[in-house]
Amino acid sequence: MAEIIQLEVKNGDKPTNLSFTDDILSFEVEKKNFKSINKLISIHSRNILSVTLDKSNDVLRVVIEAIVPKGKLKLKLKTYSFEAIDEEAVQSWINTINLAAYKDAKKAKHFKVFINPIGGSGKANKVFNKLVKPIFDAAKCTYDITMTNRSNHAKEIANKLDLKSYDAIVSVSGDGIIHEIINGLLSRNDAAEIDIPIGVIPAGTGNALSICLLGNDHGISVPHAALNIIKGVPMKIDVCSVTQGDERYFAFMSLNYGILADGDISTDHLRWMKDFRFVLGTVQALLGDRNYDCELAMKVVEDNTERIKQRYNNAYNSSSPSSVTKSKTLIDEYGTINDPTPQEWTKLNGDGYIFFASKVPWISRNNLVFPFALPSDGLLDLMVVKRDKISKTKVANILQAFNDASHVNMKEVIYYKVEALRLKPINKENGYISIDGERAEFKPFQVEVHPKLINIISMDGKYSYS
């Protein structure tokens, strides 16, 4: 039987007990307008932000700040205050509860925060001040804020930032600012030694990484994301190097050519439509009968969907889900796009509808495109849908099946695990290539996975189960 840790306090003029057992803090408060009836409050330790002893007034008070469930999907910041009776007993009880609340996570973190004021629907600054700041303050976290005002602003600052001054870097935006931060960190002279984690507040059009961390239901919930940053610990993720021409940069999320890239990039001016713009753009690309002829070469590790699924389940349920044995390095083992294609690589040429690779399972809410993607398996998940006699109706069915990931069971969908790939569009001078949800130059590119280069803050040490 778990130990019950109790503290006697006063609620108004009435004595009451604060009880903690099995990671649950319980106490009674008076119901509003029903003074003779008490309401039982139960708060899980992971939802406790801080427990402090307030000595600012003549009466000592125990102050509990927590973020508690409101309905099935929402969280609400709440403060509870009780009169202390025995100061020595109170301080000992507070220390015990705070240790249980934070476990392996550091209390009172100091953050470098990047806010993109024009990203998504332009509400990131309001999101931070109204929703995030009160939660960070309740958890006694501190922060320095930079409002980004141009492309690559976050990248420039991350490249020169004194990382030792912060416990984490926090992005209040969509996935684009995360892309900038990662590229800024990995272009530093000390890139191989960097371990500062990145926290994610979903405040953009695309919030794929937040959805992967918190799940489809909670992925766009700002309070859930703030709690994840406060209580989470560093989780290593793989990052991909991308070479195009003489340029080299990094991608943490996705690489996309075909109707899905067209649907994303061609509707960038329609961000006010939110997720619906992707649907509109993809349908236009599909009905437009556009050509996506290309040369695809890849270092395949597995192409059997059942084996891929089994390895995913084994890794997800393992206490140490990563099986990568490669050492951390930024050096490209397979060279660049300008080098000859390795002879042992598998080649898949021809026209198709979808050539899509990703390191994350969800590409947006309700779009579980890569259900077997793992944060640090050293591999890239690749999906190909070729044009071979497949009807537009069938392609539409595949897109609709992203909702529950049933597309991976369709014979028209080819699913790979690869270490590297290169793609060269042919018979076409202009088009769209999307990398981490942003438009890239329309020219051949090569991608290679680099294991465990970056840390992301996660409460559970893994992506949400898919």
TrEMBL record:
Any GO BP annotation: sphingosine biosynthetic process
Keywords: ATP-binding, Kinase, Nucleotide-binding, Transferase
Domain of life: Eukaryota
A single Gene Ontology CC term: membrane
Gene3D superfamilies assigned to the protein according to its UniProt record, in alphabetical order: 2.60.200.40, Probable inorganic polyphosphate/atp-NAD kinase, domain 1
Residues of the DAGKc domain: 106-246
Gene Ontology terms, MF aspect: ATP binding; lipid kinase activity
The protein's name: ATP-NAD kinase-like domain-containing protein
Species of provenance: Glomus cerebriforme
Taxonomy of the source species: Eukaryota, Fungi, Fungi incertae sedis, Mucoromycota, Glomeromycotina
